[in-house]
Amino acid sequence: MEIKILLAEDDINLGFVIADQLRGVGYRVSLATDGAEALKRFSEELFHLCIFDVMMPKKDGFTLAKDIRKINKNIPILFLTAKTMTEDKIEGFSAGGDDYLTKPFASEELNLRVKSLLKRINVSMDESEEKILFVGIFQLDTENLKLKSAATETNLTKKEVQILKLLLKFRNQVLPRDVILNTVWGQDDYFVGRSLDVFITKLRRYLRPDANIAILNIHGVGFKLEEKK
What we know:
Elements: E1 4-8, H1 12-24, E2 28-32, H2 35-44, E3 49-53, H3 61-71, E4 77-81, H4 86-94, E5 99-102, H5 107-120, E6 132-135, E7 138-141, E8 146-148, E9 153-155, H6 158-169, E10 174-176, H7 177-184, H8 190-207, E11 213-218, E12 222-227
Parallel strand pairs: 1-2, 1-3, 3-4, 4-5
Antiparallel strand pairs: 6-7, 7-8, 8-9, 10-12, 11-12
Helix pairs in contact: 2-3, 6-8
């Protein structure tokens, strides 16, 4: 089983060093140079573990971890930081972190921390990323960006697939609007908010042939993909 790690580190040289160390022991590593980019990558593929630098541009490690926890409550998160203050460690654990590694650190220590965190989720290591997701009469082909039913086949954009995947993860639950915006666009300002509304309208139209499926607007909160049994 190939274990995939999401690494977010704004120091490019250090990021390459850490990524090489992890790849050298068999992990597949995706390196992001800021928190916003890391959140987008998290929405695009399945990871087994996250390693986040605390001080990053656009979105710091603590904020990134909080956003990740809204999507996935169980994935292990390891923080990297130059700070040793107890208050910072408490903030990190409060943000959803599982462990803390203070810079500078030896590659052996990093490997041991990663192995320890992966042991906690041993059951989920057998999971593979699903390429085909099902909703009502439809199947979502996430790899080829298609939404299919027995009677229709619709080509989707990458963002439409990302949004629908998130809605399906939270099927029959409320998905906060800011989670969608930060995950897909990396920001949640007014203009991308209007873009989201356009995408939701399109997805509703694509799903309209199945009367048992609806994307509900939960006023002031977000959206809910409701699938009637």
